[in-house]
Design goal:
Number of domains: 2
Strand content: 5-15%
Function: Functions as a peptidoglycan terminase that cleaves nascent peptidoglycan strands endolytically to terminate their elongation.
Oligomer: single chain
Helix content: 40-55%
Catalytic activity: a peptidoglycan chain = a peptidoglycan chain with N-acetyl-1,6-anhydromuramyl-[peptide] at the reducing end + a peptidoglycan chain with N-acetylglucosamine at the non-reducing end
Order of helices and strands: HEHHEHEHHHEHHHHHHEEH
Main location: membrane
Site (Important for catalytic activity): 259
Transmembrane segments: 23-47
């Protein structure tokens, strides 16, 4: 009996130990599972954080942030400067990213960066000493276009319709606001009697990079207007010396732009216009007739010259009320620095070469020789 009792006790002990082992195993399994979950969550959170830190701080930001990189700055200091100014999310991640890309030769200097720049764009800027950004898209506005023609380019390259663009650039309240922003460019002259569009000729022709997928209509317009303001500011002293206004300059330059061909000598054409203005002789330039008609034609007919419109320089002396198109820098410079001649007439032959004359008889001879 005693042996049986001992056996039963041993059996009970074994059962109890097995049960304890099972409980321990369950506890360990739960602990391991919890640990794996915590590690997984931590790893995922870390991955998400790093991924986020590798992206621009604000892809839609447009404001420029002034950054100074002192002489002798290493990647660690530069990373801290960038984080402090909000250009990157995390200095350590920027530093490791730059090292991973084997980039460390950065140039000291002053930069204007934005929160929309990628890490690669920031690195490229710091390497070259120039602010570098990869545009989302570019839009080219050629020289010599009217607002209505620019509207078609806007419609083709953006989500805005041509009509939305025209509504905006003719909105009186909006234009008043622009006049406050650019008081030295947009003056009361844009509201002269007979002006067709107040902003005609004020949106500078160029290729514009845009760094967001859908820039606002005001951002597009003001980018082009700001470029014109920069050009006018650059030549302000010459404009004042010639006793011209910005409006007169852009109007004059637009005539040169519209008269231009691939081989045109703008400075000499400018001299013809100035010579005519000085003796109150009509400018008689065909592009103003076309602008008066409001349509494009390959040839201007004699009957077109009689159109009764303030822009028609065959019927009116002096400059037209305002620009008839957007002029480029070459035409603006020609308007400010014309050749010194006695010419009063010019014509372009079939190859686009210009021929100038001092008298009407000489001009008739040129017509006979080059156009018949």
């Amino acid at each position: 009996m005693e042996n049986e009792s001992k056996k039963q006790q041993m059996f009970d002990n074994m059962k109890r130990k097995k049960k304890e082992v099972k409980i321990v195993r369950r506890i360990v399994s739960v602990i391991v599972l919890i640990a794996l979950i915590v590690i997984g969550i931590g790893g995922y959170s870390g991955y998400k954080y790093v991924s986020s830190a590798l992206k621009p701080v604000d892809p839609n930001a447009t404001d420029e942030i002034a950054i100074e990189v002192p002489m002798g700055s290493g990647v660690t200091l530069i990373s801290k400067i960038l984080e402090k100014n909000g250009v990157v999310k995390n200095a350590q991640i920027f530093k490791y990213y730059a090292k991973f890309k084997n980039e460390s030769q950065f140039q000291a200097g002053n930069y204007k960066l934005t929160k929309a720049m990628t890490l690669d764009e920031i690195i490229e800027s710091l390497k070259t000493g120039k602010v570098y950004r990869e545009p989302v898209f570019t839009m080219t506005v050629p020289e010599g276009l009217t607002l209505e023609q620019i509207a078609a380019i806007i419609e083709k390259n953006t989500n805005f319709t041509a009509q939305q663009f025209m509504d905006k650039v003719t909105d009186a309240t909006y234009i008043e606001g622009l006049m406050g922003q650019y008081p030295n460019l947009l003056t009361e002259e844009i509201y002269n009697e007979n002006i067709r569009y107040a902003l005609e000729g004020y949106l500078y022709p160029a290729t514009y990079p845009f760094y967001e997928e859908n820039p606002s209509l005001t951002a597009i317009i003001e980018t082009m207007l700001s470029a014109t303001n920069d050009i006018v500011t650059e030549y302000r002293s010459i404009i004042d010396e010639k006793e011209m206004t910005a409006h007169e300059l852009l109007t004059f330059a637009s005539l040169l732009e519209e008269e231009a061909t691939a081989q045109t000598d703008r400075e000499t054409i400018a001299s013809v216009f100035y010579n005519r203005l000085s003796i109150d002789m009509p400018l008689q330039t065909d592009p103003t007739v076309l602008y008066s008609l409001g349509s494009h034609k390959d040839r201007v007919l004699y009957e077109d010259l009689e159109v009764d419109n303030p822009y028609n320089t065959y019927k009116n002396t002096g400059l037209p009320p305002g620009p008839i198109a957007g002029a480029g820098k070459v035409s603006i410079e020609a308007a400010l620095n014309p050749s010194q001649t006695d010419y009063l007439y010019f014509l372009a032959d079939k190859e686009g070469t210009n021929h100038f004359a001092k008298t009407y008889d000489e001009h008739l001879a040129n017509i006979e020789q080059y156009l018949r």
